[in-house]
Amino acid sequence: MRTKIFAKCLTGLAASLVLAVLACNQGSEGDRCNPISAANGHDECGSGLKCTTPDNCPESYCCPTDGKSSNAFCQPGCNGGAASACNAGDVDACAFACSADRGDLSNPDTQCGAAMPPAEAGSDAPAEAHEASSEAGADAPSDAGQGG
Amino acid sequence: MTPASPGAEEARQPPASEKGAPPAPEPAPGEEKPAEPFAFGDFTWLNGASRQHKAVLDTPYFTPEFLVDVNYTASQNNPIDHTVVGSTALSRNNEFTLAFLGFGGDFHYEHARGRLMTQFGVRSTLVPRNDGSSMRGQFDLETALRYISEAYGGYHWNALHGINLDAGIFMSYVGLFSYDNAENWMYLPSFTSDNTPWFFNGLRLQIYTSDKLKLEPWLINGWQTYGKFNEMPGFGHQLLWRPVEWMSVLSNDYVGWDTQDAPGRLRFHSDNSIEIRYFKRPDLHGLFTQAAFSITGDIGFENGDGVTPFGGQHTNNPANCTNSNPCEQHFLSWMAYHRMWFWDNHLGFTFGGGMMNNPGRYLVLPPTGVATPYQALSTDGVVYNAPGQQAFSLNPGTTFNAWDFSFGFQWMPDELTTWGLEFNHREADTNYFAGHGGVTSPDGYITTPVPAGWRPDLVKTDNRVIADLLLRF
Lengths: 148, 473
What we know:
B: Porin, two-stranded parallel sheet, 4 helices, 22 strands
């Protein structure tokens, strides 16, 4: 009898374990999403949200359909995305990044100056500066300050 | 990256004094034949050791072996590129994955001995990619050796309780878990095991001084490397002591020079484990038959050429790490697991976890895709591409702290088959694990153009379930 109860408990625990992780979860505001499947009619974002590529942003995020959001990833430049694009040579993104994300640029004096085209500046930028900005990454401004 | 457990090998192979020496000469009358190493007890309970009591397909000259490892893992992050970041056991999400398929075995005739184990499945790319030494020079060592997990030849002496000298690629013993998942209590080990070597390339001398103690020095190319990063080889040794059936003590130590273009940077690592079985009641045949635990602690560091352990600065710019103002670079970790067996040992339940602290990130498994910090070869093998701007930094001056816990079941209907189901939570203090956006491209395919500045989606936590089937003949 005890063995059967134990077996049932184990089975239940295993099943709930699988369900807990596999449960279908739709994207929340500011979560990454797949813009190509969204364009094909398979938007994975939750209710009231849609897969959006903000202006001057190289990625796509779940953002409100009405365009009103306080989430940093739903804003133009998507929380450092413009600077990342500028660092990679996207000239159009540099104009925005110089005004909004100057601190995330690898070489702001050059990238935001008129003397050198931003694309060239980006390709010459030191790798470690890029790494620093990438590690700050999607949602971790605290990591940017890990260096001493 | 991890180690194949010592126990694995001890259980897998014929006793040392028999390896390569059948038929052994009969001892003279009155002369006592040395006891076979570790044959005095049943060590199939150990984490990282075979639970088979005998080789199924054994012959006098060749003991064949056939291994299958299939998993299906699902992460709560559900990355759109189906890519797992930060493991040498898992590679693909939401897919049936043939992680490892190997066939081979042990050759033994008189004093000659050898072992071959092939390596097919995703691990043939997942593990070799962590070896930067193969980027040195020509002939593409990664491709040449990726389908071999073990390959060595050796010689056996009937001295003491057996002495073996082997040359080739052999399993590393740093850490507790085995490279063969069929020998482990859990499928996905903690960082202490996952981030330490799986194999070595070089020489090893196994000296069984008694039936309870093995001493094993190594002369190797480096820390899980096919080649050498610098001019000096790596040195190490293992000590395996099993004084009684219910206890096993393992210690591995390593010294080497494993950083590209930094011949003055010495790496030291010490790995120490104890496993104790504190309960055994086979007569119960039912609910609860056995219980054991393992504790592993590692300490290591790198010193020289701009880094120093247990002190030093942290910086985002590795150029600031100088000999006069070095950056901190060491590895501290532990892991512990508890295992219970039920129903005549047909069901196992394990829980455990661990932590790691690795400033300098020299043992952090590098993310892949757009986040890879490695230079990549083009497909024609000639053009080298610099790491992308979004590379996850493994440079001196960085920091990395992580922890994990897991629990899971293993159903073992016989000694050859294991069905596993487990939950694993991993967490780091920096964005490291694959998030929903993945590390490949906007839709997860490598054929989709990546916009300039596209950032891989790395996050701090990863919750996943892992189902697996492990077969071992």
